[in-house]
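User
Here is a favour to ask of a fellow structure person. I am asking you to supply a protein in sequence and structure-token form. Please set it down just below, with no commentary around it:

Assistant
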Amino acid sequence: MLLVGAKVLATPIAVLTNAVIARYLGPADYSYVYLATTYTTFGMLFVIFGQSGALPALVAVDRDNAGKYLGTALAWRAALGVAVYATLALGCWAFGYDTRFQYALALVFSGLLMMNLAAACLEVIRGFERTDVDALTNVGTPLLTAALTIPIVLLGGRLLAVLTVALVVQATSLIVVSRFLRPVGVGALEATLDTVQLLLKKGYPFLFFSGALALQTTVDAAFLSKLSPPEVVGWHAAANKLIGLVVFPASALVTALYPVLCRLFVEDARSFLETTRATVQTAVVLMVPIAMCCGLFPEAGVLVLGEEGYAPIVDNLRVMAAFVFLVYVSMPLGIAVLAAGRARAWSAVQGLCVVVSLVLDPILVRLFQASHGNGGLGICWARVASEVLMLVAGLILLPRGVLVAGMVGPVGKALLGGVAMAGLGWLLARHSFLWVAPLTLVVYVGVLWATGGLNREQLAFLKGAASRRRKLPRSS
């Protein structure tokens, strides 16, 4: 809840910053940011090598060696970063990307490397079941980004200036986060070959999962960049950015609870089931109004980004509302599957999603580019198909005992509130969303309140689970 609350505070700032950047750079230049970020994110998989899942889990049950885990992770990421960047730059040169894109790639890669070094620190801190530092970072980074980026863009700064600011912000974030390590309880940093082997062993299932996820995004970007004009790529990038912001509450929820679930799966099976159940129900309560607003009021995204350059993203956001609906359920299911030690199976499912993109992307991008002048819609529908697959697989792989008949009531009440939102939004469709959207949210909350769908005990349980400080068993 602390991480979700931090994102609620930070989201308007991030939306404002991205809106200013998108407006002043335009769809074509914004596509450079999207492509460079997508390719870099894929390269970063080998830099991180699944440690984002392994580090919190290892520290959660062996806090005495936190300094050794972190020191080894930082050394690995710094060393691999050089090799991965060289490979990406050479690959982009071979595929004909111009010099300006290479500059953008260098700045984006450097910024994301700084971010992932800071992320290693946060992952270890999260292993202590501390979310306050993570929350502080999630608020402070957007604030600093806005304070530096918006004036530079308004004064005429272009693509490379914006990316340079992002690099400075991420380097600053790394410095700040590192100051919290010792107070949290992380000992002296050290790097050992034995720990490298342990991190590789624990991390490779997560590498496969995150690798498949990033590969799917890379496949989407590659097909779209080759089959559609740059402005279409820019539209897709802008819509993707907005969807990423609204999906973050679910991501924050499962990120905070992952080390807790890892511990409970070993120590207390009953609490594991209860916590997972409460997480799914809370995710549904959050998901319904967010997904409904994406589908009912996509004009809000155009208002933020600018109608002149981004009007077509209305269609992208409507399709992605279905994606939001699905991902808010599949994410808590997936994190429970991972905590239960079924990372290989979950990674295999994510790999099948890459196959879905490889098959559907070239067909759907061409189809929607020809019929709507917006090939990005094809990518959106392919992502929806992939998420259906993830949801079904999550239900199959979920440990027995999580899904019980008692969940039908709370979930049904949230869906009933969504139906009320949709009905009111349809009746008032001709009026301005500026007042209709808040009214539909009031109706949603009112329905939950009237039907007893606002479960205070559930939220209190989650808060307690995320803040427990019980003495943990030491690894042998």
Notes: Residues 2-466 form one domain. Confidence is low (pLDDT under 50) at residues 468-476. Residues 85 and 106 are 8 Å apart (CA to CA).
